[in-house]
Design brief:
The protein is of the alpha/beta class. The protein has helices at 18-27, 55-68, 83-96, 120-129, 140-146, 158-169, 215-228, 233-249, 264-272; strands at 3-13, 31-42, 51-53, 74-77, 101-104, 109-110, 113-114, 135-136, 175-181, 187-194, 199-206. It contains nine helices and eleven strands. Bound molecules: 3-hydroxy-5-(hydroxymethyl)-2-methylisonicotinaldehyde (PXL).
Length: 273
C-alpha cells in the first residue's frame, strides 16, 4: 500500500485541504499522513476565522519522523501559509521524498485574485518552490500569477493552453496540470502536459453554473491518489475531472451554504471501485 504525506492546513468548516485530501486518499486505498500547517475554524472565505499557526510544529514533527525512520512514497503539498513554511517544507521534501514523487498544488487564489493573506512576494517564492515538484497543479489564476501573465478568465485557445503548460514546466516540474480551463461555453475541465514525453492531455466535463469552493483540493487529491496507485498523468486527470464533476452534481440542488464546499462525500464510492 502506498503512503503519502500531505502538507496543508486543517480548516474545520468548509471542506477543503486536509478534510478533503484525507478521505479521498483513503477511499483510493492510499495511506495518507497529514502534516498540518495551520488550524483554522474555517477556510478564509468565511469572515475572521480562528487561526492557529503550526509552523513551529512542522520541525518538531519532522524531527520525530526522522527518529522513527518515517518514509513516504510521495509528498503532496497544498495551502501553505507563509514564506517561512515554504522554506521549511522545501527542506522537508529534500529529506523525506526518497524515491517518491512530489506533487505541488500552489494554492494562492482563484477567479483572478489572490486569497486573503497572500502577497506578490509569496507568488514569486511559490513559483520557485514549484521547481521542487514532479507534478504541479495550479488553476488558471495561480498559473497566470506565477508566469506574470494577464488573467483573462477561463476561456483559452488550445494553443494558449499549450503555451501556458509549457511555461509552467519551465518552472522546473516535468509535468503540469492546469485546472479550471474551458474550451467552450458549458464545459469545464483540465489540461496537462508531460514535458518529458511531449504529450498533452485535455479532459472536459459538463460545467455547472456557479462557483464551487474546494474543488481544486478535490481535483488535486484524486490526481495524487491515482498517481500513487501507478496511474498515468492522463488517467489521473481523467479520474479527477470525472470525480470533481460528480461531486458538483451532488451539490447543485443542495440549498446549503455554498461556502461549505461540495458534497464530495456522496461521490466517494466511485473512488473505491
Ligand atoms: O481551498 C483552498 C484553501 C485551503 N485552505 C484555506 C483556504 C483555502 C481557500 O480559500 O482559505 C485555509
Amino acid at each position: 500500500m502506498k503512503k503519502i504525506v500531505t502538507v496543508q492546513d486543517i480548516s474545520c468548516v468548509g471542506r477543503c485541504s486536509l478534510t478533503v485530501a484525507l478521505p479521498i486518499l483513503s477511499a483510493m486505498g492510499v495511506e495518507a499522513c497529514p502534516l498540518p500547517t495551520a488550524l483554522l475554524s474555517s477556510h478564509t472565505l468565511y469572515p475572521e476565522p480562528y487561526f492557529l499557526d503550526l509552523t513551529d510544529s512542522l520541525t518538531g514533527i519532522a524531527a520525530h519522523w526522522r527518529k522513527i525512520g518515517a518514509r513516504f512514497d510521495g509528498v503532496y503539498t497544498g495551502y501553505l501559509g507563509s514564506l517561512r513554511q515554504l522554506d521549511i517544507i522545501s527542506d522537508f521534501i529534500d529529506e523525506f521524498r526518497g524515491d517518491g514523487f512530489v506533487f505541488i498544488d500552489p494554492v494562492m487564489g482563484d477567479h483572478g485574485r489572490l486569497y486573503a493573506g497572500f502577497t506578490p512576494e509569496y507568488v514569486s517564492r511559490m513559483a520557485k518552490f514549484c521547481g521542487k515538484g514532479d507534478v504541479i497543479v495550479p488553476n488558471l489564476t495561480e498559473a497566470c500569477l506565477m508566469l506574470n501573465r494577464e488573467y483573462i478568465g477561463d476561456e483559452y485557445s488550445v494553443d494558449d493552453l499549450k503555451q501556458i503548460l509549457c511555461d509552467l514546466t519551465g518552472l522546473g516540474a516535468s509535468k503540469a496540470i492546469l485546472t479550471g480551463v474551458s474550451m467552450e461555453p458549458g464545459m469545464l475541465g483540465a489540461a496537462a502536459y508531460d514535458s518529458v514525453s511531449g504529450e498533452y492531455f485535455l479532459c472536459m466535463g459538463d460545467r455547472v453554473e456557479g462557483s464551487f469552493h474546494g474543488t481544486g483540493d478535490i481535483f488535486a487529491s484524486v490526481c495524487v491518489g491515482s498517481l500513487a496507485n501507478g496511474g498515468s498523468l492522463g488517467e489521473a486527470v481523467e479520474r479527477a475531472v470525472s470525480f470533481t464533476c460528480e461531486s458538483i452534481k451532488f451539490t447543485k440542488n443542495d440549498p446549503s451554504d455554498r461556502r461549505s464546499g461540495v458534497n464530495f462525500e456522496k461521490a466517494l464510492p466511485i473512488l473505491t471501485k
